[in-house]
Amino acid sequence: MKWLVLLGLVAFSECIVKIPLRRVKTMRKTLSGKNMLNNFLKEDPYRLSQISFRGSNLTIHPLRNIRDIFYVGNITIGTPPQEFQVIFDTGSSDLWVPSIDCNSTSCATHVRFRHLQSSTFRPTNKTFRIIYGSGRMNGVIAYDTVRIGDLVSTNQPFGLSVEEYGFAHKRFDGILGLNYWNLSWSKAMPIFDKLKNEGAISEPVFAFYLSKDKREGSVVMFGGVDHRYYKGELKWVPLIQAVDWSVHVDRITMNREVIACSEGCAALVDTGSSNIQGPGRLIDNIQRIIGATPRGSKYYVSCSAVNILPSIIFTINGVNYPVPPRAYILKDSRGHCYTTFKEKRVRRSTESWVLGEVFLRLYFSVFDRGNDRIGLARAV
């Protein structure tokens, strides 16, 4: 759907100045070399972002909101290019699309990559598999040219699924992972790492603005930040470790009472998840507090409750991030209202949460690989 990309480019062309791409030494490296980085960040944590993003060559790529459940954007693979709709996912690290050789029901309902039609395709015999919360795939690694808008990665490793389970009739063809390389199931270099290493983006950052209700208007941006998408200033949160996009949460409260994370916990900031996820017993307690009743796989409340229920507040790095009921309650196709709190399927020995699109529609998010941190600010 090339017209969507063109609309996105036209909409932003008036405020973006295109600057020739060049490899630069980041401020982080310069200060680290002089043993000044820690003092610089401590004394002026926001000045760094203003300096490093000011000369950025932004690539802004449109996303489509599919019923507030997930967001998809177009990429192309091969020469000539073949177009696919993918989820840009900070919860995983691999890029994959269905292969023409995949005969699973899930593959049959999606666009499949025709490798014989690409003059730049290079196969391998390396196989891998990925297990997600909602499905799984088995595939093989290949190399080809991948394009995200005007960003081009030649000889990019990616996965071709030969078996898929759980993705039938989903309105996306594949997934483009934006998490750290160490989490890659295929062990292939993620596309963001390759673009960063080759200097194709001026700063090692990407950011998301996710719209609510509206099908259009959402974007992912690479190489910098468009400040028109948020209010105030970005609040930076260091990652727990430079291995994934997880941050430390101080506590979770409702009605001024701590309901979870009483001793601190971890939360993955995940653009590939629709919900707010947490340990089952704590999720059950939240459903009880708001008076939700189970029906099938969801918990439902009266739609009028949106006006009276409390916000759930995530305190992160000393800053409160409220999620009001208008955000954590959605309507299904029949007009019934359900909550977006869900039990985490992957359990850990320590308490951990997932802050998905319910949270990210409220807060513009910047994922800064150069400084291993996430920036959050109220979305416009």
Automatic annotation (TrEMBL):
SUPFAM superfamilies: Acid proteases (SSF50630). The keyword Endoplasmic reticulum does not apply. Keywords: Aspartyl protease, Disulfide bond, Hydrolase, Protease, Secreted, Signal. The active site is at D89, D270. Residues 71-377 form the Peptidase A1 domain. Its main location: secreted. Belongs to the peptidase A1 family. This is Pregnancy-associated glycoprotein 1-like. It comes from Bos indicus (Zebu). The gene is LOC109554092.
